[in-house]
From TrEMBL, chain B:
Keywords: Membrane, Transmembrane, Transmembrane helix. The keyword Transmembrane helix applies. This is Uncharacterized protein. The chain crosses the membrane at residues 60-78, 98-120, 166-191, 197-220, 263-290, 297-317, 357-377, 384-403, 423-440.
Length: 172, 460
């Protein structure tokens, strides 16, 4: 009994120890605050923490696909349209690169990533994209669908289309 | 399934670490466990693929890992009976002082932030989408590395898709477990890097010092950003840095614990990114030195053959199975071009000392190097770490110098891109060097002694 009381007393930190702890704590905290204030990298990191929290709140109701469009813009919106409207076995004929560069502001393809075959294929895989500019090199491929971009592509179809959308995908 | 699958790789890794180096301190083993488990997971997936067993049956992969864990567990139990006394986790993790608690709480908070951010956003970085994440998606869909991405008639690969497959296979593993994003794998390596570095630091400085330098690691702005992205750099940084640290520590010891652990980590690095060859060269030199000192030349032969086998296996796979070659934009003949070197070095300095990328770490490291000059000969083991850093950095710069570019402002910014992220490999080594310096040790020991002088009241 006496031993346990002694043990308890020994484990109780002294006032001096608590004060010293607070001094070191204040010192370490000051170093952190100082570094955040003088270094642009730490400063950005701290402000990014707040921004990220805001963004997560703003987009928390969005699906993964929708969050991807937040980051990658119309490139992905359009590729997701191709994916949702075609079967997995589809071979989709894409317009020449120049067509992607002529789009309007609402349908702007950021940095024209969509013209990169490997990058764009990631979003529609296992569907296959065949670019008109490459048809010479890939003559054996027979597309099953055509990507309609800024009205390009309707002339490839051998049937009339009543309701035309500027951005769509149609079967051959 | 997601959490269970990752926990199985953790336990598998822990069993492997115990089999390789049972006598290591418990925190080091915890730090090594997941990277080791995921590294072995990739090797296992690769072997199953070679045997034409579809990787889509992820439960099969997990079953093999569980079986191997049990076998290793029985082996370890028999070999190390009676068990070695180990400090309990509670004792080691007990709070030291308020400042230590603040620093560690900040580290844990930042790892938590990185985890939530990583799980919130889908993969969106260009390099990964047109690289290893695409390979991972195709592996998860088709069950093999030999998939549509490498179709010779319709190739969809980039140079990054041809990197050794540890990253792509683990990303595929994450998708097969049911994760919507592969980011979780990178987060695991980021957290493991913090745990492993803390464990190493705790051997050269006080707990407060270890916590301080660990916080400096996790707050490196560039690393903090990349830890929640689908990037292979933090993964490579773990293997290269921890492997070199283990080998550096091995040089002064006669037992092969650190040597075995370091060699395994560097072998896994060789399966992560091509730049690991540089670190494997330095690692090879350390192993050679150890072998000469211990008169055990067999060790360097075994390690050398292992490195070659790991690196060669993927090169052979690329050549004989995928039938693709990754043409590196490099000139393999050494040539002298003072203008090119000058332009490159000027950009190197600009990036290395850019405060937004690495915080204060580079400045601190350079300051400590200068302050340590009087101790260069007295503290030979710490000086050896400096030699390791400088040698690896020199080789790293040589690789960039040999790139097929003139480093003119309008050319590809290799330094601002690849070099910038490649510096992650060096930072844990630099922080350990700073922590081991007499200046840092004196400062942190002084603080903790001052605190401990009044630790408990004995008044009755």
């Amino acid at each position: 009994m006496a031993n346990s009381v002694m043990k308890k007393m020994k484990l109780t930190p002294s006032v001096r120890y608590i004060v010293k702890n607070l001094v070191v704590l204040a010192g370490v905290s000051s170093v952190i605050v100082f570094l955040v204030n003088v270094n642009t990298g730490y400063n950005l990191l701290v402000s990014k923490l707040a921004q990220e929290r805001l963004a997560e709140r703003q987009y928390e109701d969005l699906s993964y696909d929708q969050r991807r469009t937040v980051k990658l813009g119309y490139n992905v919106t359009y590729l997701q349209l191709l994916r949702s409207r075609t079967p997995e076995t589809a071979v989709i004929l894409m317009p020449p690169d120049s067509v992607f560069r002529k789009t309007d502001e609402a349908h702007a393809f950021i940095d024209y990533w969509i013209t990169n075959r490997g990058w764009a294929s990631y979003f529609v895989y296992p569907r296959r994209l065949v670019y008109s500019d490459d048809l010479q090199a890939e003559p054996v491929v027979r597309p099953t669908h055509v990507a309609i971009v800024n009205d390009w592509g309707y002339d490839k179809l051998d049937y009339p289309v009543d309701k035309r959308y500027a951005y769509d995908v149609m079967p051959f | 399934m997601e959490i269970a699958g990752l926990l199985i790789t953790l336990v598998f890794g822990l069993a492997l670490v115990n089999a390789v180096a049972y006598r290591l301190p418990v925190w080091e083993k915890i730090g090594y466990a997941w990277p080791m488990g995921l590294g072995a997971n990739a090797l296992l997936m690769f072997m199953l693929d070679l045997m034409h067993i579809s990787l889509r049956h992820v439960t099969g992969v997990l079953a093999v890992e569980l079986a191997l864990t049990i076998v290793l567990g029985v082996y370890i139990q028999r070999k190390y009976r009676p068990r070695l006394p180990e400090k309990s986790l509670l004792t080691i993790a007990a709070p030291r002082n308020l400042a230590w608690l603040l620093l560690m709480a900040t580290v844990v908070f930042l790892v938590y932030v990185v985890t939530t951010r990583a799980l919130f956003w889908p993969v969106y970085i260009y390099d990964s989408i047109y690289g290893f994440d695409f390979v991972a998606k195709a592996v998860a869909q088709e069950g093999t590395l030999n998939n549509a991405v490498f179709d010779p008639h319709h190739p969809l690969y980039s140079l990054r898709s041809l990197y050794p497959p540890l990253v792509a296979l683990n990303f595929a593993f994450a998708y097969l477990l049911g994760f919507e994003t592969s980011h979780i794998i990178v987060v695991i390596f980021y957290a493991s890097l913090a745990v492993s570095l803390y464990a190493f630091l705790a051997q050269v400085t006080t707990p407060l010092g270890a916590a301080f330098y660990t916080l400096l690691l996790v707050t490196i702005p560039e690393l903090f950003n990349f830890a929640s992205l689908s990037s292979s750099n933090p993964i490579c940084a773990y293997y290269c840095a921890m492997g070199l640290l283990a080998l550096w520590r091995a040089v002064d010891t006669t037992c092969g614990l650190d040597l075995r652990m370091g060699a395994v980590l560097i072998a896994l690095a060789l399966w992560t990114r091509p730049e690991a060859i540089i670190f494997a060269t330095v690692a090879g030199a350390l192993v050679l030195w150890w072998s000469i000192k211990q008169k055990r030349i067999g060790a360097v032969v075994v390690v050398g053959v292992t490195f070659l086998a790991v690196w060669g296996s993927w090169q052979l796979y690329l050549q004989d199975v995928l039938h693709v070659t990754g043409d590196q934009p490099m000139d393999f003949d050494l040539t002298w071009d003072a203008g090119k070197l000058s332009r490159m070095l000027s950009r190197v300095m600009e990036v290395t000392f850019h405060g937004s990328y690495y915080g204060i770490v580079m400045f601190l490291f350079v300051a400590v190097v200068f302050l340590n000059i009087p101790f260069l000969w007295k503290q030979r083991h710490t000086s050896l770490l400096l030699v390791v850093i400088v040698a690896a950095w020199g080789l790293y710069l040589l690789v960039f110098y040999q790139l097929d570019t003139d480093f003119m402002p309008n050319s590809t910014d290799w330094i601002g891109d690849a070099y910038r992220r490649g510096m992650f490999n060096f930072i844990p080594l630099m922080l350990l060097y700073c922590a081991a310096s007499p200046w840092s040790r004196t400062a942190f020991t002084g603080i903790e002694r001052w605190l401990d002088a009044d630790k408990s009241s004995v008044t009755e």
